[in-house]
Each structure stands twice: as C-alpha cells, then as structure tokens.
Specification:
Strand 4 and strand 5 form a beta hairpin. Helix 3 packs parallel to helix 5. The chain has 13 helices and eleven strands. The relative contact order is 0.10. 41% of the residues lie in helices and 15% in strands. The chain has a six-stranded parallel β-sheet with strand order 8-7-9-10-6-11, with helices on both faces.
Length: 364
C-alpha cells in the first residue's frame, strides 16, 4: 500500500519539496526504502516531539528522507542512509518504550553514536548510576559510558578531557553509589589549591575559609546527589571528606572512594604522593583537563606525564573524553574545538626552542 502524507491537521506533515525528494529517491535504481513500525505502547508525540521537532532533528542529521503515517515511519534514500536512519529510529523507539524522555540533545547524541558505530544509544542512555529527588544521573555519550564502566572494573582510573565532559560529576556519582551500596566506608574528595599560590595569605578568614572557594565545585556536586540536610552529618562523622591535596600527605586511605579533581594542576611529585596514598579496599579516580594547566612558571603537569609513567601497570585505566562528550551548552563544545585549533596553530608557528612540552601519549 503506497504511503501518503498525514492529514494537514497532523503536526508532522512533510513539505512538498520533501515529498518530491522521497518520490525521486523511490524512482532511483539505487534507492532503498525501509518501514519502522512503532509499537502501540509508544506515544508518537514522545517519539517525534511536539510539532515533530525531534523528527526534524533526525532528518537534518541524516541523508534519508522520512515520512510518517500513523505509527509507521518510512525512510527512503541510498541504502547506507536508509540503514543508518532505520537504526537511529529503532534506537529511539527502544528509548521511548523504556520510558525515557527524548530531547533534542539525546536525539543528536543517539545519531552520533549510531554514526560512529560505538555503543548502542539504548544501552548508553539507560545506564542509571544514581537517582536522587527525582533526578537520575547516567552517562550521555559512548565515551562517558566507557569511563563509568572503567571505574567499575579498575582500581585507579584517570578521566582526562575538556570542561563539560562530565568527568568529575560522573566520578562523584559513582562514589556516592559505592557508599550507598557499602562498597566503601567513606568518600574523600580533593583538589590542589594551586590558584591561591602566594595570594592565599591575603584572603580573609581562617585557612579553611581561604581554601573553601577552591573546593566549592565538589560541594555543589554533592548537593546534587545527596540530601543536603545529611551532608553536614556525613562530613562531621568523616564519611565524606573534602580537603586540599596537601592534606593527603602521609596518609593511607583504606576502604575509601577517592577523587582527585583538577589534577592538571598537580606536579609530578604531587601526583606520585597522591597515588601512593591508596590503601586496601579503596579505588581512585583522577580527573583533569591538560589544556587548562594553572601551574606557575614552566612547571610540568603531573597529569601530562603520568600515562607514560604508568604505562603497562595493571588495574590502571586512562579514559579519554573529547569535545564530542561535552554535555553543557553546544557552544562549550565549539569553544573547546576552537581553542584546540588555535593551540595547534600556535604550536606549529612556535620556534623549536619555545615549543610547548610534549603531552602524555594518549590511548584510544
């Protein structure tokens, strides 16, 4: 039975030009066609969006032409485009069937995952780590899922990537999950207070008052994941500890989930000091962005050299995130890419004796 457009009152009518493209594709000897039947349990509005907003996102991202009639989605175009589009819609149907609320961002991420042939969107976007006050924390990209899986299977994990890739937030969620499931007895969160430097003494208040601004992002993440009223009690009992990196020296940390944030601002000596705090029954996650080093002078970042140092050491994993894993505003991803291009251009122009120090070799 030939397909025909939905009635003019339906929110997803295709334009005349799109219908002509679909007809032309159907007449082409190389064209292909596939029909996806959406189960009756899936609301078409939740799948396609209000006024077919999500349908247009898929159409703009893929080469195939899409036509909807009732609960049938027909895609036409080249065999490769049709196969890709059919896979994307199949994944979106699975997500909607499981009760996930689809958004423009989740649809674009699903398209990206299918195009790259990486993890299935239905597996990545439904991996719940933690739920609190009606909010569920889960990975949103294939690399984020690999990062989370690595935390489950390795004692020490390095999460390296630009701002907004969720490396600290997901590590915090795994730490809270480990505490709630009694895999560990406490959470220890630490950051280097490098930005303070010699200016620390000029800040008002006690030492804790001076250091607090540098630890504030960790407190903010905690408040998203744990009942705020219980945080003071947990901190007073030592179940959760937030402290500057310098306070880790001389300690052995047993039965703990330990997170070192902003690790690009550690020296190689500080990194060694931190990693050797590992005790029995503990695991560590080290996060940082090697493109935003705030160490004074020409000091080498401990995060830049640690992969070369630990290469081949078992139970240590390096998870690499990129601009495609940014889950903030789309502009953040564009800004990260723009700075990367600028840095590469500047490095090419720099004289040999002024070239920046080599970065740690990265694993795929």
């Amino acid at each position: 039975m030939p397909d025909s457009p939905r009635s003019s009152t339906a929110p997803g009518d295709l334009s005349d030009s799109r219908r002509r493209r679909t007809a032309a594709a159907g007449e082409s000897a190389t064209a292909s066609r596939a029909v996806i039947v959406v189960p009756e349990s899936v609301d078409m509005v939740s799948l396609l969006g209000q006024r077919d907003e999500l349908l247009r996102v898929v159409e703009d991202a893929l080469g195939a032409d899409v036509h909807v009639r009732g609960n049938e989605i027909t895609v036409a175009g080249s065999p490769a485009d049709v196969e890709l589009a059919a896979t994307v819609f199949g994944e979106l149907v699975t997500l909607a069937e499981r009760g996930d609320v689809l958004s423009r961002e989740s649809v674009l991420r699903s398209v990206g995952m299918v195009k790259s042939g990486a993890e299935r969107p239905a597996e990545v976007l439904t991996l719940n780590i933690l739920s609190n006050r009606g909010r569920t924390i889960r990975p949103k990209t294939a690399n984020q899922k690999r990062y989370v899986d690595a935390i489950d299977t390795n004692t020490i994990v390095f999460g390296i990537g630009p701002a907004g890739t969720g490396k600290t937030y997901l590590a915090m969620a795994k730490a809270v999950q480990a505490l709630q499931t009694k895999q560990v007895n406490r959470i220890i969160l630490t950051r280097p207070a490098v930005e303070a430097g010699e200016r620390l003494g000029f800040l008002p208040g006690t030492l804790y008052d001076k250091i607090d601004p540098y630890l504030r992002p960790l407190y903010d993440a905690l408040h998203d994941m744990i009942d705020p009223d219980s945080i003071p009690r947990l901190m007073q009992s030592g179940t959760i500890e937030v402290a500057p990196l310098a306070y880790m020296r001389g300690r052995t940390l047993n039965d703990a989930f330990i997170i070192l944030d902003e690790a690009q601002n550690t020296t190689p000596e500080q990194m060694k000091m931190f990693l050797t705090r590992l005790g029995f029954g503990s695991r560590m996650v080290v996060t940082g962005d090697v493109t935003q080093v705030d160490l004074p002078g020409r000091q080498v970042s401990g995060l830049r050299v640690v992969e070369d140092i630990l290469e081949g050491v078992p139970d240590v994993h390096f998870a690499l995130l990129s601009s495609s894993d940014v889950v903030r505003h789309q502009l953040v991803s564009d800004i990260v890419d723009a700075y990367a291009r600028y840095d590469a251009d500047q490095a090419d122009r720099a004289p040999v004796d002024q070239a920046p120090p080599p970065r740690a070799r990265r694993r795929s």
